């Protein structure tokens, strides 16, 4: 099970979700945290994050990353949206965050933000073949997304976020009628133009996500039923109810707004422009109600992570050993032949075990041999010709976590010498090894060359083998078919073994007796 922490640095709030991801791609939200940091306050006027908001934001992010790590969530994804994206000192802020938390902040574009929101919504409710119009009202931007159950049809990011509109039109409460009309004209113009650009012939419904839409739904449901809303996701609110909330917000002072049941006090100055936007969008599309989604960018980031890391998540469950897991991950990325590579690894370690009296190597060297056998053909992904050399390059330039640099060099050298040329000081990679490690590479390469030869056809014709160590080495093969090609190849590959141990190698099969 993978443990993922997702932190979203929004214009209005900083959110963190902790998710446990199962090998089958499902996930469970274990915990959620939110701090209404309001990074966007004043940012869009001044084009700069204030020292105060940066300091507060940095403190919140340090606390959240520490909390995540203490709970065992070492994989942390951190994204920032419009406030950081548009601020002149946004770069300085994300550098400070990275220095303090050791997490790289990904500043997403408006289009990427829309795509992630679509992913979050699509997996939270059943969409149809007819496009739904999804709207996410943030503090700095509004994402307008058209999508079906199968695909993202179109997406736009508009600079109509609630904090931005509040700073532009609603510096006083209640606002003047002229400011209300001016804001409404701006919204109508921008939204009408956006709908024309999306060119939707028909519309299934409108879906709203974000904290703004959620708080509007809470207010409406309390007014409608007198009780708190039991579930945000898939709840609906009508155009009539939206107009009612808008009218109450527009005519009242801040103290009077705070008397509205269900209103989040932290949204007392930003909810009005968000409600106006949703009302105008409904009127322009002719829709009578809005469906609420409680999933958005954070859940989209989780699904995006699962999609990009599905194989890795599965292998972590299948292979607990981190070293073996990383070897297999590299092999899979290089599209290796699984059956052949693992069969060669089995033959190689069997040879190793049955010739210990000759080489006198230990478990560490056995492990290196097994890993090199799994990786010996990865160079095919570049080119079958000289794939042993390509394999060396791939291994030395891959991030094999859990291995020292010396171990990586040894495994790469074993791959380099599983065919063709024998180890020699004319090769820089081999020459860089200590004399002791050079000796180990020669011995292990000799075993790997024979093992690979014994599966020349890639059909596992040689099931297993038995080694008799005497003045000569007799390798008895248990076969399941015609072994002539395997025996011929292995005999030709036994040259290094014979040179090291100064004994002839003879192959016999159960068909010979």
Describe what this molecule looks like in 3D.
It comes from Candidatus Nitronereus thalassa. Keywords: Hydrolase. This is Ppx/GppA phosphatase family protein. Residues 24-307 form the Ppx/GppA phosphatase N-terminal domain. With 513 residues, the chain is an alpha/beta fold. The protein folds into three domains: 2-109, ATPase, nucleotide binding domain (Nucleotidyltransferase, domain 5, 2-Layer Sandwich); 125-294, Exopolyphosphatase. Domain 2 (Nucleotidyltransferase, domain 5, 2-Layer Sandwich); 319-512, Hypothetical protein af1432, CATH 1.10.3210.10. The chain has helices at 43-46, 51-70, 82-86, 90-101, 110-122, 162-169, 177-198, 211-225, 239-251, 254-257, 271-285, 297-318, 322-333, 338-354, 356-359, 363-375, 387-396, 405-416, 428-431, 435-453, 484-493, 495-501, and strands at 2-9, 14-21, 27-35, 75-80, 105-107, 132-137, 142-147, 152-158, 206-209, 236-238, 289-292, 462-469, 473-479, 505-509. A six-stranded mixed beta sheet has the order 8-7-6-9-11-10, with helices on both faces. A five-stranded mixed beta sheet has the order 3-2-1-4-5, with helices on both faces. Helix 2 packs parallel to helix 4, helix 6 (162-169) packs across helix 11 (271-285) and helix 7 (177-198) crosses helix 11. 45% of the residues are buried.
Topology at a glance:
Layout: E1 2-9, E2 14-21, E3 27-35, H1 43-46, H2 51-70, E4 75-80, H3 82-86, H4 90-101, E5 105-107, H5 110-122, E6 132-137, E7 142-147, E8 152-158, H6 162-169, H7 177-198, E9 206-209, H8 211-225, E10 236-238, H9 239-251, H10 254-257, H11 271-285, E11 289-292, H12 297-318, H13 322-333, H14 338-354, H15 356-359, H16 363-375, H17 387-396, H18 405-416, H19 428-431, H20 435-453, E12 462-469, E13 473-479, H21 484-493, H22 495-501, E14 505-509
Parallel strand pairs: 1-4, 4-5, 6-9, 9-11, 13-14
Antiparallel strand pairs: 1-2, 2-3, 6-7, 7-8, 10-11, 12-13
